[in-house]
Specification:
By secondary structure, the chain is α/β, with parallel strands linked by helices. It is 37% helix and 20% strand. It is globular and about 40 Å long.
Length: 162
């Protein structure tokens, strides 16, 4: 039986894939990857993400505001996100979360964006694509406050107990 996989996290919308996006997608399909969730990183990229996912039937958009790009985000982007989730086809809210590895990112601001996006995911009954780099305890504590939720966590570097 051939593998039939879903990649829960790829960034096929980024510029790096422009020269060979179709070939890379074909290689993934040949390897058994039938579908891929493509999480956003910032509001400016949402239109391109939408267009790339519309052009390729195996790609599925997730809209969100990635914590590493916090300096690019503005509070009104959270209102925009609500509109995008209401009007554009998507399968998840992401990429969202907390990143404590990058030391100069304001943890309070990251927390604010994370919480608003978790509330939107819950309100729209969408799964989440969560980034949790060196912030796993804070991510888990926050997720518990917003249950019920479903989704995936990546960039995990915590302990076996966690």
């Amino acid at each position: 039986m051939a593998l039939r996989l879903v990649d829960t996290h790829s960034h096929f919308d980024v510029d790096a894939f422009d020269p060979d996006r179709n070939a890379a997608l074909a290689r993934a399909m040949d390897a058994g990857v039938l579908a891929q969730i493509v999480p956003a990183i910032d509001a400016d990229g949402w239109p391109r993400l939408r267009d790339v996912c519309k052009a390729e039937p195996g790609l599925h958009a997730a809209y969100g505001l990635h914590p590493i790009y916090l300096p690019w985000h503005r509070r009104e982007h959270l209102d925009w996100l609500k509109t995008w989730l209401d009007t554009e086809p998507c399968v998840a809210v992401g990429e969202i979360g907390l990143d404590y590895y990058v030391e100069d990112l304001d943890r309070g601001e990251q927390q604010h964006y994370f919480e608003v996006q978790l509330k939107l995911a819950r309100d729209f009954e969408l799964p989440v694509v969560v980034h949790a780099r060196r912030a796993f305890d804070a991510v888990i504590a926050t997720l518990r406050r917003f249950m019920p939720l479903r989704g995936v966590v990546h960039s995990f570097a915590g302990s076996q107990a966690q």
